[in-house]
Amino acid sequence: MRDPLWRVKTLPWIPLLQNALLTVLLATVLDIALIFLLSILFTVGVADGSIALQVLQGGFVGMLVQLLVAGGIGALAVILMERIFRYVRLDGATLWALVGCLALTLWVKSWLPIPALLVGISYLQFVGMMLGLFSQGRSHWRW
Fold this sequence. Notes:
mainly alpha; 73% helix
């Protein structure tokens, strides 16, 4: 009898988790740099900080920004997989496993006391991450 979990057991989990950690690390560094830059701009008096933060975190524009940032995180994960982890064969199953690894990494990051403006995990960001990952990795789909 064939093992139904054979494909799941044979996926390259360690490189996928390493890629997810690297992707979330890069995105978090950029997010913290954005927070630092916005705090400098607001203390100098260039812009009103409360209005800018409300735009980035709420309403339709905020949802769109979160969706686009999450899509960028998904696309960055595929790009890093293609450039750094070349020995891993990308196909539909590894892309789905990468989605799970990214979601797990972002969930663990949400428990850490790291400031976050745009990098996090929510339903909207999860969908954006999948859209970015699968749009960047569409050449690796095998039907």
